[in-house]
Amino acid sequence: MSVLFASDVHLSARRPEQVDAFLAFLCGPCRQAARVYLLGDIFDAWLGDDDVRDPHPRVERALASLTAAGVEVAFAHGNHDFLVGEAFATRTGCRMLTQPARIQVHGVPVVVLHGDALCTRDEEYQRWRAYFTNVANQAQFLALPFAQRLERAAALRLESAEHKALEIEDIMDVTESEVHEVLTRLGARHMVHGHTHRPAIHELALDGEAGRRMVLGDWYRGDTVLAWDGDGPRLCSASEL
């Protein structure tokens, strides 16, 4: 059976086709999977576990149905859905991952994470990330009325767009030395991540041993997932599984 990985779906009512495709993925191929890993930015903007804007409730119901059927689903926070919390986990049955996480896939140690922590050359983004992943800062934000959270999120999205327009593209990609450090620290040679929206399987050499860095694609232009079965990992379309 395959282990399936997806990230950067960016579910939003503004993109109903992607919502339908992701729900079909959960209700179809994921039912036949050994495990499913959702590695961040599944939602385009999750402003707390009380965020019931469409399509959030529909996705929660599909996840709850999947886990109730006996499929293990693990969820890692991304930079768009870092406020997914314990209430979401309880409602859906998803297991929340502490990142980076070391897992086993068909007997192979693999490190999984969203991937934004690997982009260390983007110093401004890393300062933003440190602030918003701080538990006290999150609690302060979540204490705001939902309407104020919406306003602040809109302002932050504008700032992020301006930042990306000014940054050199390569700065927003991962730092190879950071990839090697994380893999070495966790005792693995293979990594799966998203965030950069650059789907590819990169060959690595770690202390003379071969490894791979597998990058998931976003769902703006397709429905790329990683399927890993007994023959190894492959990037493919979710609709082709």
List the defining traits of the structure above.
241 residues, alpha/beta, 6-stranded mixed β-sheet, 5-stranded mixed β-sheet, 24% strand
Could you characterize the architecture of this molecule?
The structure is a single chain. This protein has 241 residues and is α/β, with parallel strands linked by helices. The chain has one domain: Purple Acid Phosphatase, chain A, domain 2, CATH 3.60.21. It has 7 helices and 11 strands. The strands form 2 sheets. The chain has a 6-stranded mixed β-sheet, with helices on one face. Strands 5-6-7-9-8 form a 5-stranded mixed β-sheet, with helices on one face. Helix 1 packs parallel to helix 2. It is globular. The termini are close together.
The CATH topology annotation reads as Purple Acid Phosphatase, chain A, domain 2
CA-based gyration radius: 17 Å
Mean pLDDT: 93
State the distance separating the first and last CA atoms: 12 Å
CATH C-level name: Alpha Beta
Order of helices and strands: EHEHEHEEEHHHHEEEEE
Shape: globular
Can you describe this structure in just a few lines?
The chain has helices at residues 16-27, 56-68, 86-92, 123-132, 135-142, 146-166, 176-186, and strands at 3-6, 35-39, 72-76, 95-96, 101-105, 108-113, 190-193, 200-206, 209-215, 224-229, 232-237.
Topology:
Layout: E1 3-6, H1 16-27, E2 35-39, H2 56-68, E3 72-76, H3 86-92, E4 95-96, E5 101-105, E6 108-113, H4 123-132, H5 135-142, H6 146-166, H7 176-186, E7 190-193, E8 200-206, E9 209-215, E10 224-229, E11 232-237
Parallel strand pairs: 1-2, 2-3, 3-4, 6-7, 7-9
Antiparallel strand pairs: 1-10, 5-6, 8-9, 10-11
